Amino acid sequence: MELSENQTKVLKALQNDPRASMRSLAEKADVSTPTFSNIVDELEKMGIVKGYRTVLDTRKLGLYTFHVSMEIDVHKSEEIVEKITEIVEINELVELDGSDLFAKVIVQSLDELDDVTRVLKGIEGVIRLDVARETGCLKDPSTVPLETVSNLDIDCYYCKKTIQGTPVKLDMDGRKHYLCCETCASEYKEKYQRLKEESKIQT
Ligand SMILES: [Zn+2]
């Protein structure tokens, strides 16, 4: 699957300024307000829009950021990741090719960093740690280039798992709904009709 032209326009507008009003965003994306809101809803259900977060200036808050790369035993990666994600100071954790994890740690002091690295080193299967302090953020997390997107992985609207292969498409109320299999499709259809009936009764 690819992004449609309208989806691309909506994502561009949204990425640049998610706090703007729906109306002005729709204008920027060159679509009507209801279309804009339908597409946003669709992108959220597909799992492409994952959320809307506030970006904080950690330096102004007197916090320190460290980047930690870890070599780990791949056979224990699941348990290791589980333990690391529990540490509140870990702001971000990504998996890299091979047997490496990369974490962003935000702490109030060097003592606190020591505590975190001690915990990390104590986790069974963590082989090596490299810690570097961030001395300046030269470019904030910015927009994602969308022009070259051609291979979408989307979530099933019903079970929320990533759809493998061609999605099952349901056309309802002039909108497309994407499901991973026939079972999800029929369950979803049932739920959709039920919710629709309920909302009809309410209004
Ligand atoms: Zn499913």
Structural notes for this entry:
The protein has 203 residues and is α+β, with helices and mostly antiparallel strands. It has helices at 5-16, 22-29, 33-45, 77-85, 110-122, 182-202; strands at residues 64-72, 90-96, 100-107, 126-133, 168-172, 175-179. It has a four-stranded antiparallel sheet, covered by helices on one side. Strands 5-6 form a two-stranded antiparallel sheet. A hairpin with a 2-residue loop joins strand 5 and strand 6 (175-179). Helix 1 packs across helix 2 (22-29). The radius of gyration is 22 Å and the shape is globular. The model has no long low-confidence stretch (mean pLDDT 92). The site of zinc ion has 8 residues, from loops.
Task: Give the secondary structure arrangement, pairings included.
Layout: H1 5-16, H2 22-29, H3 33-45, E1 64-72, H4 77-85, E2 90-96, E3 100-107, H5 110-122, E4 126-133, E5 168-172, E6 175-179, H6 182-202
Antiparallel strand pairs: 1-3, 1-4, 2-3, 5-6
Zinc ion binds at residues 156, 158-159, 161, 179-181, 184.
